[in-house]
Task: structure prediction
Amino acid sequence: MQDLDYFFNPKSVAVIGASKHPHKIGHVILWNFLRSYKGRIYPINPSVDEIMGLKTYKTILDVPGKVDLAVIAIPAKFVPPVLEECGKKGVKSVIIVSGGFSEIGRSDLEGEVKRIGKKYKMRIIGPNCIGVFDAFSQVDTLFMPRYRLERPRNGRISFVSQSGAVGSAILDWAAAKGFGFSKFISYGNAVDVDEVDLLRYLEKDKTTRVIGMYIEGTRRGRELYETLRRITKKKPVIAIKGGRTESGSRAASSHTGALAGSAKVWEAMLKQSGVIVAGDIRQMFNYARVLAEQPLPKGRRVGVITNGGGFGVIASDAIEKHGLELANLEKKTIAKIRKHVPEYAVVKNPVDLVGDADAQRYEVALDALMDDPNVDIILVLILFQTAGVQSEIIDVVANKSDLKKKPIIAFSAGGEFTTLHMRMLEKVGVPVFDSLEEAADAIEKMYLYSLYVGNAE
Amino acid sequence: MQDLDYFFNPKSVAVIGASKHPHKIGHVILWNFLRSYKGRIYPINPSVDEIMGLKTYKTILDVPGKVDLAVIAIPAKFVPPVLEECGKKGVKSVIIVSGGFSEIGRSDLEGEVKRIGKKYKMRIIGPNCIGVFDAFSQVDTLFMPRYRLERPRNGRISFVSQSGAVGSAILDWAAAKGFGFSKFISYGNAVDVDEVDLLRYLEKDKTTRVIGMYIEGTRRGRELYETLRRITKKKPVIAIKGGRTESGSRAASSHTGALAGSAKVWEAMLKQSGVIVAGDIRQMFNYARVLAEQPLPKGRRVGVITNGGGFGVIASDAIEKHGLELANLEKKTIAKIRKHVPEYAVVKNPVDLVGDADAQRYEVALDALMDDPNVDIILVLILFQTAGVQSEIIDVVANKSDLKKKPIIAFSAGGEFTTLHMRMLEKVGVPVFDSLEEAADAIEKMYLYSLYVGNAE
Result:
């Protein structure tokens, strides 16, 4: 068992500051554990005997069994004595969600926390953070109501965030769009566990295929660089770097107080360590979901299939703009498609199956492009406004994607009917975009990463 | 009455090819008119007496009253004789949605159409198009089922499209997002009415504040340029140019057959004529809705309000990246806000109201920035994951936006709860983005347009 593993796979959890009052953070956290977590749960509260049907203990020292993880949600000034008790109890890992430490000038209290943690060799995440969400074990210290912050399904993206707000928005967004998550960690003031520790843990984590991060600054530049450079050879890391400009850097110093450092130094560091930089959440997910769900391409030649000619044109522009190429289809490919489509279909690249295309026509084109050695990546455009395309198109595209022979990326654009089908595609592992610019951008990043790890030429 | 006005405000409409069969285009079109259009409707079909309760005429010549607009949805080969009848009847304008003309090599049929139109001085839109949608008069020739292609609410954006598919997706998208439309025209093969005619009409149209267009090529380059240059001084024009690259240009020539022309010539032409170029639908709407709903800024200095510090940092980066400036708040402004927020709030620019901010705190900050002469544009970030922000925030932001003193642009990111509130904001006229990159990009375009028309320095 790795050092940090008690944060994600504890057999037992104590919630210190558990409360009967629905508006208290300690209530929300206990409720979340009760709802889905399978291990033992010990509420700690000196003044009640029972919360939500669970026997409640006055202090953690009164708990009969072992405690792997303690979650602390009480006012800052009470944290040090309670942490001391955790140490005595032999707790392995502690998440302190409480604020009120160095971020408001109470470095003295934070020093205490650090000292006690070291004394007992406990690992600590926080303070001043929203903590951990693990979509597999259902460890969940996020104290926001679920109707406001939905939890995503389990999947292959993990995310490390220096900002609680950015992290919350990311989880909530992912849940609504159908993107899958493995682990999420907001590490706050990082009195012990910091981004370097977390990256090293995720490096070896089997359920993590892609790592995302939001970072403003670091206290361990050199180690961060070396860790990232090593990880990126195994898994893609996508970073949103807060403070990439002078203005952003100033804003960051009032936010996390972290020395954001020179924008240029960061840029060079991230580039040299093979990190993919995203400008915001949307871009981060655009890159993460193609890398998490699809195989890496062997080259940059894109085959495009569409049922709307105008979008084929826009796709061609976007492909060239992003340093990719429209594949030169083999004669055999063209002949195969030609046989099964009406005369007015345009069989070159983009393959325009025209407005009355149905799922069968798409299947023929997908198969042909899948077999064409000149095609490295398939971009399939599906417009649902005309009546030809039925919902069965989802199965057709998903089946080809499941072969994992070549990456398949989809595009669609429209209203509710379209959105419904886009979510279906996303859930079966086909990344789907509503902007061809963004699709081409994501394909470019995928291709560059494939080059970086020596998978493409 | 302007020449083209019969397309958008006809007092009577004949649907030629009206049908009882739900799958026929002529059925969908008649159904659409019956649903919302207030003028007289005459179904034309030689073999039935009544459709959907309406008396049906064998030919348009049998219609008792005048016909302002005829919509033709019959096979191509029958179009010329029917068009001749329209001419004899004195019809002012005709929309031919039928395909089967020059796009499949039948230039002979298309020539016939052109000759007959000229002979009777009828204006013709099409053939091979989806025609017209007017959100005010409810002229609606779109033959896609409404569950697949939703119709948007009425508003201030009009759109001219050389591609039917791009046009359909745009309307459907706008409907789902709550964006408002005035007029939409897909002009197909442009046997008579082309993009230049339509732009000239929209130039004078009072309900059109912003014009969007999708264009691949033109037969009237010089006139298009001069028309655009004149219009852009009065209203913003946003164009998606299909065929901006070599690859796109080749794809366009197989699509509309239009000579897409040199990408460089187009780029120069659009730039010199003051057109804002968008890469895809998403960008087009990003630019269109800020320009349609908000006043133009007097300068480039942005004041940012947030309840999540990390997003304030990302916003600062995006603002600088897009050539804008973080405003230097006046001392008075800072004092005003300081008085009403807790000590741990960060009162500089970005104004970080922190995680427990409520609508009242936002109101104080919005008022202060509204009064600060150093602020030209307000970017307000609202994260709904924490429980502090209630739905009343919509009223607070909408009320400030209604003053039309300075542009207000909003940002939010998250799941269903967030999306619901974003749609509310959009519907009351506050453009809201889920990407700070895109928000800053749209503000940049807004500022540049304001410079262009001499409203900003």
